[in-house]
Amino acid sequence: MKTLIATTFLAAAALFTVPAASAAGYDGDLEKANIDVTNEASLQRGANLFMNYCMACHSTEYMRYNRVGRDIGLTEQQVEENFIFITDEAGDPVGVGSLMTNAMSEDYGEEAFGVVPPDLTMTTRINGEDWVYTFLKSFYIDESRPLGANNEVFSNVGMPHVLWELQGWQEKVVDEDGNERLELVRSGQMTPSEYDRAVRDIVTYLSYMGEPMQLDRQRIGLYVLIFLGIFTILAYFLKKEYWKDVH
Ligand code: HEC
User: Residue 57, annotated ligand binder?
Assistant: First the structure.
């Protein structure tokens, strides 16, 4: 019995201590994403960046455009004009009720990058928000790679540094203490703090994607608390009423 209890505890402890990032095989420190999924402006900026910089390769095919628009506070017209780049067989843009697939065929992805770019609907659930945040900040120049870039948290990644125009380029340098770190050697359109915010926005959007209900859950939770508060007061007066005659 004792062994059983001990093993259960150990198994539980292991569950809680394994960092989410181990999914992608990186055991160094991750930066904190510090996202807030209730921040609508951040969600909208993130969605915009995602549609422009990521959707060409990655689908989020478990979600529909109009659902996303509704959840993050955009009208169907805004969604249609800004987010829908893919067309149907007749060449017309797909409707706002469509799933968010992308135009790249698996064969092409395989040929161009060596791997098919994965669907990202669940990526923050699989890899963790901090991992995705750190990943998008950790591309650096590496001429030995086919696309000229490598990534600190995902070595020999098949994905190019798609945000280079915004971030600029980093190089791996070794400081006096022999520690490796990434240093910005060519600046991009954004300052480092603007770039951090852009990446945080993308991760916010991806976190919403992975669990859209979290927006509703917080709102419903508030109603439940208000209801419980009112109910407690009612119950209290009811109790007083019932016990009045007993004493
Ligand atoms: C040019 C195509 C391309 C674009 C554009 C692109 N990616 Fe990727 N991405 C890839 C490929 C290919 C992989 C698979 C890498 C591998 O397995 O080596 C990948 C992998 C990833 C992963 C790791 C997923 C996992 O679990 O393995 C994440 C996260 C990711 N991309 C996020 C993004 C985001 C966010 C953007 C937009 C800022 C983006 N990607 C734009 C090609 C692309």
Answer: yes
